[in-house]
Amino acid sequence: MRHACRACRSRTGDIVLDLGEQPASDFFPPHGDPGPDPVYPLQMWLCADCKLAQLLTDETAPEEPRGAEPAALVKQAADAVDRVASAGWLEPGLTVAEYGSPHGGSWASWLEERGLRPVGEGERADVVLDVFGLMHEAEQAAALAERVARMAPGAVLLLQYHSLATIMRLGQWNALRHGHYAYYSATALSGMLRKAGLTPRSAWEFDLYGGTVLLAATRDRFTGQAAEAGLGEVLRNEAATGVGDAERLRELQRDAVRSAEALRAWLAEQRSSGVSVIGYGAASRAVALLCRAGVSRRLLPAVADASAAKHGRRMPGTDIPVIDPQDMITARPDAVVLFLPDLLAEARLSYPEVEAGGGRWVSIEHIS
């Protein structure tokens, strides 16, 4: 049976990225477990009708150890609240319902400071907020309808997402992972919102993850804000990137081959030169990259991570252990490969011993 779009149920579309059989990126086995780990197809499909890029199939079960919330995510949340409040959407006394993400980024504390009141589960609110949460829903249309149903009269729906245009522009092919069912453009998401009875009104762009977008939408009868503030520019940039073009999206396949080969070659060169290397950031993007590159602990002895829940485990699909950052410092590596470029400033501040000991941070974007 052909795949039915998670948003519009169309069965017309194309596979635009195929990473083959991959382990579940949220299943970190104990380090003593020799494997092999179960693997599953990992493919991105673009709907020819509504243009939503999406995970084709997912046979995995979520098992992700809770990660440490990056300071960059907290900082971005504060910035977003300031910008949305300045636009007049977050008045004191309004009620708010928040759909969060397992990766963090909640606005709750910032909104309470501004006098907004949270509502109970299932209750309607003046502000319905989803911060990187909707992408985790397999049934996209149903999940969006649920959020719309939580909107009180005159309410605004705020949806934040990692932009597909960013993924394409920066070659972030390893953003594709099990459990992340949708990869949004403002173009596709605007169509989903209109089908749900809402009108997109405003958009804000942020640097997090290389480029994220926050989209505001209201019911048609709401006239309290000027329509499409910032949205037109986002849509124009997406059109130039080609977010709805299957052939343009297939460039991610070439990016996957190129970056995996570059990482393996760089690690091999460091080893042959006697340069000791440890990784930092046991994130889902690192899983796909390491597996695609065929990297073992022979080339990368360990990956450090701030999440204590991941310590004593290993990277899925590899024999590379996940270690405490203090063990990284003790090891005094010549180089630390940072798998999450957004964390560079935070990592340097948190672990000054790396550079004080003569080591250097190397962002993965400068390798692959």
Structure, described:
31% of the residues lie in helices and 23% in strands. It has 368 residues and is an alpha/beta fold. It has three domains: 13-55, no CATH class; 71-241, Rossmann fold, CATH 3.40.50.150; 251-366, NAD(P)-binding Rossmann-like Domain (Rossmann fold, 3-Layer(aba) Sandwich), CATH 3.40.50. The strands form three sheets. Strands 5-4-6-7-10-9 form a six-stranded mixed β-sheet, sandwiched between helices. It has a five-stranded parallel β-sheet with strand order 13-12-11-14-15, with helices on both faces. A hairpin with a 5-residue loop joins strand 2 and strand 3. Helix 8 packs across helix 9. The radius of gyration is 21 Å and the shape is globular. It starts with 12 loop residues before the first strand and ends in a 5-residue tail after the last strand. The model is unreliable at 222-227 (pLDDT under 50).
Number of strands: 15
> How much helicity do the residues have?
25-40%
Identify the strand order in the major beta sheet. Answer: 5-4-6-7-10-9
How much of the sequence is in beta strands? 15-25%
Q: How many separate domains?
A: 3
pLDDT < 50 stretches: 222-227
CATH-derived architecture of the largest domain? 3-Layer(aba) Sandwich
Q: Count of helical segments?
A: 12
Structural class of the helix and strand makeup?
alpha/beta
- Give the CATH class of the largest domain: Alpha Beta
How confident is the prediction overall: mean pLDDT? 93
- CATH 4th-level superfamily of the largest domain: Vaccinia Virus protein VP39
Q: Terminal Cα separation, in Å?
A: 37 Å
Query: Biggest β-sheet, characterized?
Result: 6 strands, mixed
Describe the global form: globular
Write down the secondary-structure element order.
EEEHEHEEHEHEHEEHHHEHEEHEHHE
Here the CATH topology of the largest domain equals: Rossmann fold
Query: What Rg is obtained from the alpha carbons, in whole angstroms?
Result: 21 Å
